[in-house]
Structure formats: C-alpha cells, structure tokens
Amino acid sequence: MLKTFIAAALLAGTVLAPGAQLRAETGPALLAVESENDFETTLARLLKALDARGMTTFAVIDHAKGAASIGESLRPTTLIVFGNPRGGTPLMQAEQRMGIELPLKMLVAEKDGGAVTLFYPEMDKILDKYGVTGQDKRLTAISAALDAIAADAAAQ
C-alpha cells in the first residue's frame, strides 16, 4: 500500500510538508524535499550549500529560459549538475556505466501555486541498478551529503 501511495504521490506532484522527504519505491529513483523558500532563494541556497561542501558546480541549466527561447512558457525549473571526483571516481571504477549517472544532479522546480521542490537521486537505487557492491560506506556518505544539501537549500 505504501509503495502505491508513494508512486501515486510522485506522479500526481503531491506537495510535501517543508523538509519532508518522499522515498520512491517505484518509478524514478528520486527523493523530493519541499522548500520553505521561494524559487530564487532555494536555488541560491542550493548553490551556496554545494560550495560550502567543496562540490564543483559543473552546470546550471535553466529549463524555463530554454522554453522561453522557443516562445514557450515553463514554471521556474533549474537543473544543477555537481560533484566531487573523490566520491564519484570510485563508483565509476567499480562500474564504469555509473558515469551516465554522475556527476550528481538536483532539480529545483516551482509547482503551481508557487511551492518549490528539490528533486535528487536516491543513490542506493542507482547503485542497485548497475549492480555496484562494496560501496556501502561511500553510498552512506553521498546519500547523507545529498540529504543535508537539500535540507540546507530548503530551510529558511
């Protein structure tokens, strides 16, 4: 029942309580954290949290700007691509195909009504997908860092 609820909630774009996490059991391996801030503040806090943890921001992709370039509209939606070779390289050494998942990504999206949500990968689901084993300590560290970064970006 819980799996069905979580999958339905993700598909329906359910708004979560500030700071709440939704762990997906089916569908995309994504976590969602509702922000207490507006879009611009959330995005700025996310970039600051990444920098504070020594992460390299490789790209900031403004999907709404892309939509505007073809005369279409899109609520604010920005993808941040980031990482740290110390975390990612061993995963790719264990399974080179992990390079399709790395560097890491977080999506900041504004929903109807102005609620802002951060979406990011659920790392254990990704490692399972590629059959990566023996990386439990690294997985725990990466997952904790992603959770903390999202929490910092979402908090007031």
Give a short synopsis of this structure.
The chain is α+β, with helices and mostly antiparallel strands.
Structure characterization notes:
With 156 residues, the protein is an alpha+beta fold. It has a single domain, classed as TT1751-like domain (TATA-Binding Protein). It is 44% helix and 22% strand. The chain has six helices and six strands. The chain has a six-stranded antiparallel β-sheet with strand order 1-2-6-5-4-3. A hairpin with a 6-residue loop joins strand 1 (21-23) and strand 2. The protein starts with a helix and ends with a helix.
Structure keywords:
six-stranded antiparallel beta sheet, TATA-Binding Protein, disordered N terminus, alpha+beta, 156 residues
Structural class: alpha+beta
Q: Supply the CATH class.
A: Alpha Beta
Sum up the overall morphology in one term: globular
Assign a percent range to the helix content: 40-55%
Number of domain units: 1
> What is the β-strand count?
6
Major sheet strand order = 1-2-6-5-4-3
Q: Can you identify the CATH superfamily?
A: TT1751-like domain
N-C termini distance: 33 Å
Q: Could you say what the CATH topology is called?
A: TATA-Binding Protein
* Largest sheet entry: 6 strands, antiparallel
What's the average pLDDT? 86
